[in-house]
Amino acid sequence: MVRKQDNTNRRNVLKTIGASAIGFSTVGTVTAKRENQFRRDVDQARKLREKTGENNKFIEYLQKKGYAVKSNTVHDKVHLGGNDGPSTQRLSSDELTATINVSAWHRNCNPDPYDVYAEYYFEWNMNGGSGDGDKDGFSVGWPASDFQYEENSATSSSNVDFHTRDNSLNAVFFKYDDTGLGGYWGDDYDSGYGGCYMNTESGYGDSSTFAGKWAHTYDNLTICGASASGSGEPSWSFCNDGKKDYMGFTQTDYSEADQYWANCQ
Fold first, then answer.
1. Cα angle vertex 241, ends 240, 245, to 5°?
2. Is the pLDDT of residue 196 over 80?
3. For 216, what's the count of Cα atoms within 13 Å in the CB-facing half-sphere?
4. How far apart are CA 203 and CA 139, in angstroms?
């Protein structure tokens, strides 16, 4: 038996958001007995994406299991200015594809998500450029009053290192070494991710958003620390002088990932 949605006023926005426009699937069921199954399904979806090299496989797998997924992607060209890495001199054909993926599981058919997974997935395509040897930083953040980071839940691909989480519990930060990209001996393509699980706070609302940003460092610039604003906007601190390009900024409205909360038994 499907429980009637009991939070109509807070989700009136969904009346104007069509499933066809978002491209979600509601195949399958998510029951209260599947609290641990959600995480196993997320893990399997990541493995499938790693095997195929396609983020759509990650999304489609979770949708077929009955979970709504919201995904937002941006493409950024890299600025190259010579041996010291990016600059504003000219745009290269090298490209960063950055995506925020958000999915959730609802306990006992509650309209608010119980277990939320959010990640920053990236792909690098190098066509003539090369990595600069200084580790880049990227992050995923969310409003501090809406969700709370679950301790020790940060996860990442093997080519990504967990860096830190913001003290206010509303962002996780990762580092990526682009040394092996491009150049004479490097690879032209690489991909990876960093993400975490979180629980819902009482302040959750339809305006909740997840945000991600990439910091491309070069000219011996080293990341020391990181933090996020109350709304989830990430920022980095650096140990020394150098250069950087901020890129790969993407934002996802969580309410769109949440509209199939009633897909349970």
1. 110
2. yes
3. 25
4. 22
Which sequence spans correspond to the domains of the chain?
Answer: 9-257
pLDDT over 60 (residue 180): yes
pLDDT higher at 65 or 13: 65
Residues 6+ apart with CB under 8 A from 87: 79, 80, 81, 243
- For residues 120 and 173, give the distance between their C-alpha atoms in angstroms, rounded to a whole number: 10
Render pLDDT for 1-35 as a digit per residue (tens, 0 to 9).
333 333 333 333 222 222 222 222 333 444 545 66
Q: Which of 115, 93, 112, 80 is nearest to 218 (CA)?
A: 80
pLDDT score at 146: 86
The percent of residues in the chain predicted with pLDDT above 90, rounded, is 33
Give start and end residues of each alpha helix (H) in the chain: 19-22, 35-52, 55-64, 254-257
Residues 6+ away with beta carbon under 8 Å from 187 = 126, 180, 181
Give CB contacts under 8 A, 24+ apart, made by 230-236. 230/143, 230/144, 230/145, 230/168, 230/170, 231/143, 231/144, 232/141, 232/142, 232/143, 232/144, 232/170, 232/171, 233/141, 234/139, 234/141, 234/171, 234/173, 236/137, 236/173
d(CA 27, CA 48): 19
Q: What is the pLDDT of residue 233?
A: 86
Q: Report which of 98, 91, 55, 100 is spatially closest to residue 74, judged by C-alpha positions.
A: 98
**CA-to-CA distance for 168 and 6, rounded, in angstroms?**
31
3 state SS of 100: strand
Phi first, then psi: give them for residue 253, nearest 5 degrees.
-80, 115
